[in-house]
Design brief:
Largest sheet: 8 strands, antiparallel
Order of helices and strands: HHHEEEHHHHHHHEHEEHEEEEEEH
Strand content: 5-15%
Number of strands: 12
CATH superfamily of the largest domain: DD-peptidase/beta-lactamase superfamily
Shape: globular
Number of domains: 2
CATH class of the largest domain: Alpha Beta
Structural class: alpha+beta
Distance between the termini: 52 Å
Helix content: 25-40%
CATH architecture of the largest domain: 3-Layer(aba) Sandwich
CATH topology of the largest domain: Beta-lactamase
Length: 380
């Protein structure tokens, strides 16, 4: 008799557990989704529409915004479909006019400005050597291999320099504010062009190359050929190094809508308002995948087989490949070409008293939310 009671209790517990798991996996209710207002704010800078009008399931869009609303550090979520803003919501301290540093999303802008410098004839080709642009220090180079580093190597994060978070001297150099001398002093850990290794310093040096080749600082050159034509204005406070060069690896300041405009430009192969701001060939080359699964994060959420192009990330989502600009804390510009879709998030990378310790968990939650949303749309 006792065994029968135990068996009954065991199966009852299994039944209750299964019911709880099932309920937990159901996601937001219809009432939850109905309570989320993600209607875009009407302004002249974007044409707005609705998910239904642009041919996607409004419940999937609502679920993405509902999930985002549960995150502590997200500031904004924007969804652009067919060139129209179909969803926009600001959370926590975020707002439509919020200008903030977009961290390593800056690298994708530096890549764009490199392409424009090539288009305009300021640079000859991506095979030009890095040290051609640093005659003031090139005579100090003792490792002849450094002469082999090309602009293309830098764009692909294959310069051979170490990732700062894995190398004490590079980490110290990154925070020094003076960067030219470290081209000389820092070691190469790989032969140029052979392996991917993320390097903030390499991205900044590329920004200096663009400035030196054009004779204009990165911001002025960007305003002439990219920012002003796009109708966007970088916020004040984009930091410079001690030699006066704008930081090419991080710190650019834009609103979430500005980021969406940049994403749409790449989705439209460099064209905006019938003007070719960046050559279509450069956009296509930038969004290729030149290395896969070589970063310490190879998958997150529904993003799989993460890779790198010309300072743009890429990942598989189901059977599709997406591209994205990615900055610390959850700054994202995600492109899905087959859906003509741009998804943007901005976020607070310094949330809470233990922000450094918890930064990745917050950033990961944003990546998971966005990747799950794109996966759901591709699975319809």
């Amino acid at each position: 008799m006792m065994k029968q009671h135990i068996r009954y209790g065991f199966f009852l517990l299994l039944s209750i557990t299964a019911t709880v798991v099932l309920l937990m996996g159901c996601g937001p209710s219809a009432d939850d989704l109905a309570s989320i207002d993600y209607t875009p704010i009407e302004r002249e800078d974007w044409q707005i529409s609705t998910p239904t009008s642009e041919g996607i399931d409004s419940e999937l869009v609502a679920e993405a915004f509902y999930n985002a609303s549960k995150l502590d550090t997200i500031y904004s979520l924007l969804v652009v479909k067919n060139g129209k803003l179909i969803g926009e919501k600001y959370f926590n301290k975020g707002s439509i006019d919020e200008l903030d540093r977009r961290a390593s999303v800056t690298k994708s802008y530096t890549s764009a400005l490199t392409g424009i410098a090539l288009d305009q004839g300021y640079l000859k080709s991506t095979t030009q050597k890095m040290l051609e642009f640093f005659p003031d220090i090139s005579d100090q180079i003792t490792n002849p291999t450094k002469w082999e580093i090309t602009i293309e190597n830098m764009l692909e994060m294959k310069s051979g320099y170490p990732w700062e978070e894995e190398h004490a001297a590079a980490w110290e150099a990154m925070w020094s504010g003076e960067y030219l001398s470290h081209i000389v002093t820092l070691p190469l850990i790989f032969e140029p062009g052979t392996r991917f290794k993320y390097s903030n310093l390499t991205a900044h040096w590329l920004g200096i190359i663009v400035a030196r080749a054009t004779g204009k600082d990165l911001k002025t050159f960007g305003e002439e050929y990219l920012f002003d034509p796009l109708g966007v204005t970088p916020g004040e406070g984009w930091n410079r190094d001690l030699d006066g060069y704008y930081i090419g690896s991080g710190d650019i300041i834009f609103t979430a809508r500005d980021l969406a405009r940049f994403g749409q430009l790449y989705l439209d192969e460099g064209k905006y308002n019938n003007q070719q701001l960046i050559s279509a060939g450069w956009v296509r080359d930038s969004l290729q995948t030149y290395s896969v699964n070589e970063f310490e994060v190879t998958s997150v959420g529904k993003f799989r087989n993460m890779g790198y192009g010309y300072m743009w990330w890429s990942a598989d989502v189901g059977d599709h490949r997406v591209n994205f600009a990615w900055g610390h804390g959850g700054q994202l510009i995600v492109l899905e070409n087959s859906l003509d879709l741009v998804v943007v998030t901005t976020a607070d990378p310094f949330y809470g008293p233990d922000s450094h310790q918890n930064a990745w968990s917050h950033e990961k939650a944003i990546l998971e939310t966005v990747s799950k949303f794109i996966y759901s749309l591709l699975s319809e």
